[in-house]
Amino acid sequence: MKGHAIAQTLVCARRQAQSSAANRVQTVPDLTAEAIALGRDERLSAILRDICATTGMGFAAVARVTEQRWIACLVEDRIEFGLDAGGELKVHETICDEIRDSGEAVVFDDASDDIKWSRHPVPVIYGF
Asked: From CA 30, how far away is CA 66, in angstroms rounded?
């Protein structure tokens, strides 16, 4: 990975929706509290630290992702991105939509050098 590049990875965590509509509906505080609770695992913190240390990336996160919401569960932020556990991004301004739709991993060293990602709106929005 190039030293001058700021990279971001979003490790997207997703749960399959329950079958009944009553079980699928959760209020905003419920989802946020659930996301924060999922992020209290020290093993996940260690994994995010290792991801940043190994790859040279300055940001890694585990998020609770639904079709409508992206809520940070746990964040390793070495670039002062400013997102904390419980914080939200617009789900359509993340790569998680594409990961969910395609089921394919998204891997690149430098978004500005990658043919697909250099033209994609997400790296432009977040500056990587």
From this structure: 13
- Check residue 76 and give its pLDDT: 95
For 26-79, how does the pLDDT look when each residue is reduced to its tens digit (9 = 90+)?
A: 555 677 787 777 777 889 899 999 999 998 889 999 888 888 889 898 999 999
Phi-psi region of 95 (alpha: psi -120 to 50; beta: other; left: phi over 0): alpha
Under a CB-based contact definition with an 8 Å cutoff, are residues 100 and 124 in contact? no
- Which three-class secondary structure state does DSSP give residue 79? coil
User: Which residues contact residue 41 at a Cβ distance below 8 angstroms, ignoring those fewer than 6 apart?
Assistant: 74
pTM for the whole structure? 0.67
Q: Helical H runs in the chain?
A: 21-24, 28-38, 42-55, 96-102, 121-126
Among residues 65, 52, 127, the alpha carbon closest in space to that of 98 is found at 65
Q: Give me 83's structure tokens.
A: 């997102």
